[in-house]
Amino acid sequence: MSWYATPLGDPIEFNGLKEAFAEVCGQKDKCALGSVKGNVGHLDAAAGVCGLIKTALALQNAKIPGMANYTRPNPRIDLDNSPFYIPAEMMDWPKQEGPRYAGVSSFGVGGTNVHVILEEPPSRKRDMAGDVRGPHILPLSARNPAALSAMRSNLKNHLVKHPGASLAEIAHTLQAGRRQFSHRIAIAATNADEAQERLVADRYQSSGRATRHHRSHSCFRGKARNMLAWVQPFIATSRSLRSGSIAGRRW
């Protein structure tokens, strides 16, 4: 709900929801109500998007957040004769038949009223074969050495907190979805444990400041006749390598 904590405005919004949901959600305590304003206050122009973010996180984590700083309802709000309830604490969002849905309301002072309905994303089966085929290249870049060191630490902590994360997907995001800055490092790892070890190892350090963007795609040192066999695991897991061409010469 938008819920400005006004004596008259909140009951009007509640009664509108009650009328709209009467036929599709007739059971008592069927639908939770909440507001982000109890967490951060009224953010004026950012209030709507803040509620949208909170709702998206609730869907992502399958959790119903508790109403912050809530003690009792407005006496003009009749929760007992409605399908709604106000959760006081965080609770699991039970899985029922079909996807989870949540609505977000935002009412502007100028008369702009918005209500959007969010649906949880469909579950997808990960292709874990990509992680088995490794190694995967994890490139990191930052504006200065301190920021690069922080990125290494953050990625290592992410892998620790999310042991089921796909290393292949992380590698692709780092390769294709990040800007390149002057201080860089790239680490090759076949699994999350190896990546964590190399992200904190002193022997893996930035080679220095990159002064310009080079057009070379990849460089593999060694004998040309053995190069293709050596880089085959990288080709199998790297979209950019598969779409490009590989040429080698003997050094």
TrEMBL record:
Q: Does the keyword Phosphoprotein apply?
A: yes
Which segments constitute the Ketosynthase family 3 (KS3) domain? 1-120
- Which GO biological process categories is it annotated with? fatty acid biosynthetic process
PANTHER family (UniProt xref) = FATTY ACID SYNTHASE, SI:DKEY-61P9.11
Keywords for this protein: Phosphopantetheine, Phosphoprotein
User: What Gene Ontology molecular-function terms does this entry list?
Assistant: fatty acid synthase activity
Q: Which InterPro entries match?
A: Ketoacyl_synth_C (IPR014031), PKS_assoc (IPR032821), PKS_Beta-ketoAc_synthase_dom (IPR020841), PKS_NRPS_Biosynth_Enz (IPR050091), Thiolase-like (IPR016039)
Protein name, please? Beta-ketoacyl synthase-like protein
| Phosphoprotein in keyword set | yes
